[in-house]
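I'm curious: can you give me some protein's one-letter sequence along with its backbone structure tokens because I've never seen that pairing?
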Amino acid sequence: MKKITFWKQLGIGIKNYIEALVFVFNKGLWVYFIYPIILSLLMFYVSFSLATFIAGEIETWIKNAIGFGSTEGWLSYLSGFLHFFIIIALKIIFFFVYSALSKYIILILMSPLLALLSERTEEILTGKKNPFSLAQFLKDVLRGIGIAFRNLIIQFSFILICFFVSWIPVLGWIAPFMLLIVSYYFYGFAFIDYCSERKKLPIGESVKYIRKHKGLAIGNGFIFSFLFAIPFVGVVLAPVLASVAASISVVEIDKSEYVKN
């Protein structure tokens, strides 16, 4: 067994997105894009409606709290300004909160699809058929959801820590960079864990495997985050390509590490 270096793992995690894009269309897996297209439209509609509703409720509460009962004279102009300011400010705040959570919301909602896609990719690559089992499929889905929640809690804990560290001279300068690396790692973790589940690795063993291949996880999560930042298109492309790229990478790394010298 030979060890693949961190930097080589990182390169594998990044470059396999190109192979994943070709793989998806050559192997007829493009149909997996249909679900995220529908999901992204629904999420956009729900998030926009929710932001508008919350902004309206808070605006009404503030107006009542400070006694804006009249809409005549100068109060009408003040009320109009208050309405505009609150709507814009709350939507901006909601946008940042939603952006932080949306990746994990997508991972949770797409867990059934990603589990199937990861398995299908490995079957095509290795030729090894995994007989379908509803019980195993549900187990994979629940595990994927559990991993997403686990990583969400850990990542937001790091966000809180980095917030306090950011006030410390010198250390505060590298805190945002470290936060990005941690987020890339946990996004990649979620996609690689689908492969660990098929190997019947318990979560503890999967954590050890991914820590050993942290370069792969960071590379996969980095491109996932980059693609996800592209409006609308990113929500469709990023999860599907990340899942395929992770499966391709794990197969490649396992073959390289366990090849006989």
In short: Residues 111 and 141 are 6 Å apart (CA to CA). The mean pLDDT is 80. The chain is about 85% helix and 0% strand. The radius of gyration is 22 Å.
